[in-house]
Prior knowledge:
Number of domains: 1
CATH architecture: Beta Barrel
Radius of gyration: 23 Å
Structural class: mainly beta
Strand order of the largest sheet: 1-2-3-4-5-6-8-9
CATH superfamily: SO1590-like
Helix content: 10-25%
Low-confidence stretches: 12-21
Strand content: over 45%
CATH class: Mainly Beta
Mean pLDDT: 82
Number of helices: 1
Order of helices and strands: HEEEEEEEEE
Amino acid sequence: MRMSYAYRTIFAITLASATFAQETRMKTAKGTFQVKMLPPGPGPAPDDGFVHLSLTKQFDGPLAGNSHVEMMATGDGSQPSGGYVALERFTGTLDGRAGSFVMQHSGVMSPGRMEISVVISPGTGSGELADLEGKLEIRKEGKQHFYTLHYALPERKSLAPKRRVQSSKRRG
């Protein structure tokens, strides 16, 4: 069955409105973080052509806490080009809500170009950060790292018990 022009237009407007509503619910948190490389584990490094790195990060600002990162990269950083993937578990608070979540990184770099994607891995939020979704942008100026987190998080559920409304009628 073919949809008429009017129905297609209504469908497109409804879809655009829903997308706009979803985008307007996104919040933004901005701050800084510090990165610390961890020493390699005992034993020889795998001979697979990849560099395996472990890092810790300390976040300050609305996203406050620590994270542990496991990264695999092409090259050892001595060349200006390469790529990496990583998983990062953050534990701390986001706008005062405590919990943890995992971020998934993918990046490529070459002279004059850097493309990094960091998304919150769906279903990894815990505590008050359960159901968190979003993406993180990273910017570096000199040795200082900056983050901008665009996120959506359901409103807090009230923990107060519901009050029963008593009837004004007397039972006899």
